[in-house]
Amino acid sequence: MYKKVSMPDISEKGIRMPASPIRKLVPYADAAKERGIKVYHLNIGQPDIATPQTALNAIRRYENNIIEYGHSAGNLSYRKKLAKYYNKLGIDISHEDILITTGGSEALVIALNICLNPGEEVIVPEPFYTNYNSFAMQAGVKIKPITTSIKSGFSMPLMKEFEKLITPSTKAILLCNPNNPTGYLYSRNELEQLRDIVAKHNLFLISDEVYREFCYDGFEYYSCMELKGIEDNVILVDSTSKRYSMCGIRVGALVTRNRQVAESILHFCQARLCAPAIGQIAAEAALDTPEEYFSEIHKEYQERRNCLIEKLNKIEGVFCPMPKGAFYTIARLPVDSAEDFSRWLLEDFEYQGQTVMLAPASGFYHANDRGIDEVRIAYVLQKPDLINAAKCLKHALRKYNN
Amino acid sequence: MYKKVSMPDISEKGIRMPASPIRKLVPYADAAKERGIKVYHLNIGQPDIATPQTALNAIRRYENNIIEYGHSAGNLSYRKKLAKYYNKLGIDISHEDILITTGGSEALVIALNICLNPGEEVIVPEPFYTNYNSFAMQAGVKIKPITTSIKSGFSMPLMKEFEKLITPSTKAILLCNPNNPTGYLYSRNELEQLRDIVAKHNLFLISDEVYREFCYDGFEYYSCMELKGIEDNVILVDSTSKRYSMCGIRVGALVTRNRQVAESILHFCQARLCAPAIGQIAAEAALDTPEEYFSEIHKEYQERRNCLIEKLNKIEGVFCPMPKGAFYTIARLPVDSAEDFSRWLLEDFEYQGQTVMLAPASGFYHANDRGIDEVRIAYVLQKPDLINAAKCLKHALRKYNN
After folding, report:
1. Which of A16, A113, A284, B272 is the most exposed place for a label (fewest CB within 10 A)?
2. ipTM of this model?
3. What is the CATH number of the domain that holds A225?
4. B316 and B196 share a domain?
5. Does A353 touch chain B (CB under 8 A)?
C-alpha cells in the first residue's frame, strides 16, 4: 500500500494553459544576469515611475490592528470616490455600478464567465493582450480573433470583418483601448461603428481601458461607457496598476450599468470574499494624486515613445508604427523567428556587456501562428536606457543576420 | 440607432452563481443596526484577534517607491521561509513545491481547474465550506457530496460510502481539515483510510488545511501531505487569513510535489501576474510571529468554544456536537427553517436591544436541501459577547416557537 501510485492525469485546461510569453524567457534573462550582463527589460510593462506619494503614505499609515475582510463589492468609501473619478471623465455612473476586483485580471475572468457560456465566442481584435487567451481558457470560452495589421498601425478592423465572424454563438466583443500590445487608440468614430454592431447583434462589449491616462499627440480617450444606446451591453474593465504605477497591489474594477450583470459580479466577488484590503486603501488614496503627477508622466512617456520609435525605425529592416496610447509598440524585425532571436539575445549575445529582453509577439496572437517576426516592446525605461537598448538591438540584428 | 437595445442574456453560470449564504442576510443586519440594535455576528469567521505586530510593522515600514509586480509564483524569499514553516510541521517539501495564491479562494479555483475537466466529479463530505459550490461552478466541475451527520459529530464517512460515489468521471476528493463548517478534525487513521481510496482509484486529494493551527483538547493535526504513497496525488490548499488573523491581505498558497501540477499552477498564476505584493510582505513577516501568540489564541478559542457549546446545548431543543478544530460549529435548532428563523432574528426580534446573526447551514450543503434546521456558528467573539449571544438565542427560540 505504501508503494507510490501512478500519477493521476491533469485536466486539458491544465495542460493547455500557456506559459506567459512575456515571462517565459525569464530563466534566460536570469542566466544572462548571472554572467554579469546588463539586461534591458523591454518585455514587460512594469513602469519605472514612482507610485504616488499619497498611496505609499496610506500604506505606511495603516492604523487598524486587525486586517479584516472587506465588503465583497469593495470598500464603500473607495467605490464612492472612484465613481467621482469616472464622472469627471464623462462616464455617468454611481458607486453601485462599480465592483472592486483583484486587478484587471480577475475582472476579465469574471466578465467572460458572466457574459458567455462555455463554448460561446468572443471576438477580439488581434494582436491582443496575451493573457486574454488564459482568461478565455479559464472561462471555457472561445476567442475569435480579427487580425489587425502592422501596416495600418493596427487600426480598428472594418465592421464587415466583425460581421463575418458573428455566429449564433457570438456573445461579446472584447476591446482593449488604448491597446496593449499595439498602442493603438480607438477613435470615437471607430467606437460608434462598433456600437452599431453591438446593438444590431445584441452583444456584450467588454472594454478594457486600463491605459486611458496614456494618450499622446493631443488625441483624446473616448470610453465605451459613453456610447449611447448600448448602456446595458457595456462592461468596463479597469485597473489601478498602470495609472498609479502600482502593479503589485492587485486592485481593479468592473463597471457596468447592467443590474443583472452587476448582481452576478457581486456573487463571483462573494465567493472570493474580498479584494486585497491594503491595496484598496492605497487605491483610494491614489485618487488624490495631484494632476501634475499625470502631466509629468504623460510628457515623459511621450518623449520616450518618440525617442524609441525613431531609433527603432532607423534600424535597417525594422518597422514600427507610431503608437498613440499606452506604453507599448509592436515592431517588425528582419528575422524569421522573433522568438528564436529573443532567446538568442539572452543566451548568445552581448554588446558592451549589455543585451535586450523582448516579448515575441506571436504570443499576442490567438493561434501563435502570426506575428512571428514581430515583438512587443514596452517603453517603460528611462530615455538613456531606451537609447542603449535600441543600440544593442541594432548591433544584435546585424550580427544575427550575418 | 440611439434607441436602447434589449439586454443580452448572461451565462447560466452567471445566473446560477449563488449569493453567499454567510453574507446574504447582511442587508437585514444593517437594517437592525440602523434601528439601534446590537447584532452579535456569529455568522462569519472574521476573528477579533489582533494581526501579529510583526506583520503590521512590515506593512508600515514598506520602503519601496514603486509597488511593482512580483514573481508569478510568489516572492522567492517568502516561499523559502514558508517551506521551513511546513518542514517544522513535518511536511517535507521545498520552496519549489509552493506557489503563492491570492488567498485560499484562488488556490481552490486553480486546483479544481487543473485536476478536473469540465463535467468531471469531485467528492466532498458535506456540510462543506459554502464557497466550494461557487469554485466548482467557476471551474465547471461537479461536486458529489457525501453527507456527514451531526449525530456522529460529522466524522469521516465510511470508505464504502466514498466507493459508492466513484465513477469513471471521479477525479478528486476535496477535504477541509480541520473542517469549516463542522469543526471536525480528521484523525490520522481516518486519513490513512482515505489514502487507500485515493491510491486505489488514482484520484487527486485536494486538502484544504487553512485551520491547522486551531486544534483543541490535545488532538494533533495530521496533514494529508504526510500520507505515504500518494505524494503525487495530494495538493495542499493554504491561507494566511485565519492563522494570523489577516483575512484582508488575500494571501494563500498551493503546495504539491506533483511537478506537472506545479507547472500548470504556475501558468495559471502567470495569467494573473502576481499575488498581492503588500500582503506577501505581511505574510512573510508573519512567519516570525512568536509561539506565544498561538498558545494564547489557542487557549482563548478553546475557552470560547467550551463556553459557547455548553450554553448552546443547555437551550431546550438545541444540539451541538463538540468541535475539535477550527472555530466553527454546526448547531441543530428546534425550528422548521433555520433560514426563516435567522432572518426573523434580524427583522423582528430583539432582547434588551440585542440580537444574533447566524449563517443558515443549508447553504453549506450541496443542494441546499439538507441541514435546514441547522446553523453554522463562528466563535470569534469574546466570551462575554458569546454568553450574551447565547442568551439572546435562548429567548429568541422561546419566543419564535410560541
Report:
1. A16
2. 0.95
3. 3.40.640.10
4. no
5. no
In B97-187, alpha helices (H): 103-115, 131-139, 159-165
Residues B317 and B383 in one domain: yes
Answer yes or no: do A19 and B270 touch at CB < 8 A: yes
Structural domain includes residue B58: yes
CA angle A205, A210, A211 (to 5 degrees): 115
Please indicate, yes or no, whether residues A232 and A253 belong to a single structural domain of this protein.
yes
Q: Which residue of A has its CA nearest to B47?
A: A68
Mean pLDDT by 10 residues, chain B (402 residues): 71 92 86 96 90 98 96 96 97 98 98 97 97 96 96 94 96 97 96 96 97 94 96 98 96 97 96 97 98 95 96 97 96 97 97 96 90 95 96 97 92
- pTM (predicted TM-score): 0.96
Q: Are residues A249 and A125 in the same domain?
A: yes
Measure B378 CA to nearest chain A CA, in Å. Answer: 15
Helices B291-314 & B383-400 angle (0-180, nearest 10): 20
| Same domain flag for B127 and B45 | no
Judge whether residue A11 has pLDDT over 50: yes
Cβ of residue B17 closer than 8 Å to a chain A Cβ:
yes
For residue range A249-270, list pLDDT tens digits in order: 999 999 999 999 999 999 999 9
Cβ–Cβ of B46/A62 closer than 8 Å? no
User: Could you tell me if A20 and A118 lie in one domain?
Assistant: no
- Residue A2 pLDDT level (bands cut at 50, 70, 90): low
CATH number, domain of A353, equals 3.90.1150.10
CB-based contact A276:B250 (threshold 8 Å): yes
The domain tally of chain A equals 2
Q: What are phi and psi of B351, to 5 degrees?
A: -130, 110
List the 87-106 stretch of B: residues with Cβ below 8 A of A. Answer: 102-103, 105-106
- Domain stop point among B266, B286, B306: B286
Instruction: Answer whether residue B97 is part of any domain.
Output: yes
Domain that holds residue A204: 53-286
User: Distance (Å, rounded) from C-alpha A277 to C-alpha B27?
Assistant: 22
Q: Tell me the chain A residues in contact with residue B245 when contact means C-beta distances shorter than 8 Å.
A: 66-67
Query: What are the pLDDT digits (tens) for B116-142?
Result: 999 999 999 999 999 999 999 999 999
Structural domain includes residue A356:
yes
Let me know whether B76 and B87 are in one domain. Answer: yes
Please report, for residues A46, A91, A334, A381, the alpha-carbon distance to residue A328 in angstroms, rounded to integers and kept in the order given: 11, 26, 19, 12
Q: Measuring CA to CA, which residue among A323, A302, A359, A334 is closest to residue A153? A: A323
Q: What is the tens place of the pLDDT at every residue in A123-164?
A: 999 999 999 999 999 999 999 999 999 999 999 999 999 999
Q: Which chain B residues are closer than 8 Å to A279 by Cβ? A: 276, 278-279
> Between B8, B115, B279, which is nearest A276 by CB?
B279
**Spatial distance between the Cα atoms of B177 and B171, rounded to a whole number of angstroms:** 20
